[in-house]
Specification:
Layout (H helix, E strand, L loop, with lengths): L6 H29 L17 H29 L5 H23 L3 H29 L3
């Protein structure tokens, strides 16, 4: 069993792995389209909806994960560098690592209004954790 002090790094690794899984899902679809002759390799412009609703949701779920991975990595690595690896900080890291796949799975499953509300709730959990983590770090750095 890993030590509690490695919890933030383990959570970050799981978050990154989840992002890679989402990337593989998007790549699988795109490569399949190109190999089947249904699309050219330049048929997937960034930021412009293409493919079915499900394919676009997969694309957006991946983009959302990448956007938040950067913030999470900055907070976790700053915490680890500062020696903050246990307690509330570690718990917040675990919550983020769970809430991210929940948000993505809801995103992949449906674009309905109810699903959007649930997805937002999972995002909000992550956002609150990010803010809380940042506050803990600042309190540490300012000796509070």
């Amino acid at each position: 069993m890993p030590e509690m002090s490695s919890t933030p790094l383990i959570a970050l690794t799981w978050f990154a792995l989840w992002t890679l899984i989402l990337m593989g899902n998007v790549a699988r679809w795109r490569v399949g389209q190109v190999l089947a002759g249904k699309a050219k390799s330049d048929s997937f412009p960034a930021g412009i909806k293409h493919g079915s609703d499900a394919e676009w949701r997969a694309n957006r779920a991946h983009a959302n994960a990448i956007e938040n991975l950067v913030v999470f990595a900055a907070l976790v690595l700053t915490g680890v560098a500062a020696g903050i690896t246990a307690g509330t900080f570690a718990t917040l890291c675990l919550v983020v690592a769970i809430a991210r796949p929940v948000q993505s799975i809801i995103h992949l499953a449906s674009g309905s209004g109810q699903a959007t509300n649930l997805r937002f709730a999972a995002f909000l959990v992550q956002f609150v954790c990010f803010i809380w983590m940042a506050v803990l770090l600042l309190m540490h750095f300012y000796g509070m």
